[in-house]
Amino acid sequence: MAKYTRLTGTQDILPEEQRYWEHFRQTVAQVALDYGFDRIDLPIFEMTELFARGVGENTDIVEKEMYSFQDKGDRDITLRPEFTAGVVRAYIENGLHVQPKPVKLYSIGPAFRYERPQAGRYRQLHQYNAEIIGESGPMADLEIMLMAWDIYARLDFQGLAFQLNATGCPACRPTYIETLAAHYRARQDALCDDCLRRLEQNPLRLLDCKREACQGHIAAAPKITAHLCAECDAHFAELRGFLDDLGRPYTLNHTLVRGLDYYTKTVFEVWAEGIGAQSAVCGGGRYDGLIELIGGPATPAVGFAAGIERAVLVMKEQDVEVPALPTPPVYIAYLGDACRQYAVRLLVHLREAGLGAQIAMGGSLRSQLRHANKRDARFALIIGEDEMAADVVMVRDLHAGDQETVAQDALIATLRSRLDA
Ligand code: ATP
Ligand code: MG
Asked: What percent of the chain clears pLDDT 70, i.e. is strictly above it?
C-alpha cells in the first residue's frame, strides 16, 4: 500500500493515457491555427479579488468552489477556477487593447474547483479556452461557436448538439429577473434551501438548480427570450440566422444560464454522447461587461472553455481513433559486456545524426529484444562480437519481420530509407 495517495478529485495522467491528451492538444492547436487565434499563457494563481469580481460573488464557483489561501506575504490568492478573468486581466495589464481588434486568444492548462468528484468532474480539471475580444456583433459569437464545434467534429465525436440561449444585457435582464423572481416567490413554500437563497441573492441561478423537486418550477418559469430588449433580440435572431443558414443544429434551452455571472446575450454549450449526466463538453458565451468591470475600457467579448477530461471520456466511450504517440525508431541490443562500449558509441553516433534511439541497459539478448518490441521500436540493431569485428550491424526490422547485415558506414542511410519507404 502506498503511504501517500493523490487527493480526492485529482488524477494521475499515466503514460498510457497520454495519447488521448496529446490528440486533444494537437487538435485544438490546429483549430486555433486555422481560425487565427494566438496563444497566451497565464499564471495559475491570481488575486482572489479578480475571480470574486470577475466570476461573480454569488456564483457557486466563488461561494463554494475556489481554492483560496493566503501566501506567506499575507496576500489573498486563488488557484484559477476558470481562465477568462485571467485573460481579461492580462489583456488590460499588457495593453493588448491597443492591438487591432478583434484580439483572438487561446490558452490551455489546469483549473481548480472544489466540487463533488464524479465521472467527468474533478477538483483539478483541465481546459482549453478561447476568446474573441473587441467585437460586439453576432459574427464573433458565431465564430466562437463554430470553433468550439470544429474541435469535436475533428475529433470525430458523434451526437454533437449545441444548446443555446440568450441571457440579455443590463438593459433587459433586470426586468426579466424581476419577472422570474415573482414566479418563484409565488412558489416559495415548495423551493429547496438553495433556491430560497438564490431567490434572494442571484435569481438567474434558480434556473440552474439540479434538484428533481425544482425541475417543475424551472419548466414553468418565464423565458428570458420573451423579455429581451430590441438590441439583444436582434443579436440573437442574427446569430440563429447564421446557424440556420449553415445547417448547424442547435436546441434553444431557456434554462441554460451557465455558472458565471459575467455572461451577456449569447450563452451556449456543446453536448456530446457518452458522458452521462455531465453532457457538456464545452461551454461559453458573450461577456460584454467583464472588461470594464475589471477596470479596462468598455470592450465586448465572447469565448468558450472546453473540458479536456470530458473530451477524453468521450474519446474512450465512442472509440475515437487516437493515434499512437511516436516512439524512437531504433533500439540497440548487444551481446554481453564486450560489445557494450561499441554499442554506446553507435548510440551516440545515431543520435548525432538525428535518429531517435534507445539502448538496452543490460540483460540477455532475448530480454533486450522483448523490451525493444514492448517499446514499439521499428528497428532492433543487434551487435555481437562478429559484427564488431567486421564493422557491421545486424538490422532487424521489427515491423517487417526481416533482418539484414549492414555496413557501419551505410547504416544511417539504410535506416533512413527504410523509415521513408
Ligand atoms: P458543469 O455545468 O458541468 O459544472 P460548468 O458550466 O461549470 O460545467 P464551465 O465553467 O463553463 O463549466 O467550464 C467549461 C467546461 O469545463 C465544461 O463544459 C466541462 O467540460 C469542463 N468542466 C467544468 N467543471 C469541470 C470539473 N469539475 N471537472 C472536469 N471538467 C469540468
Ligand atoms: Mg460547474
From this structure: 99
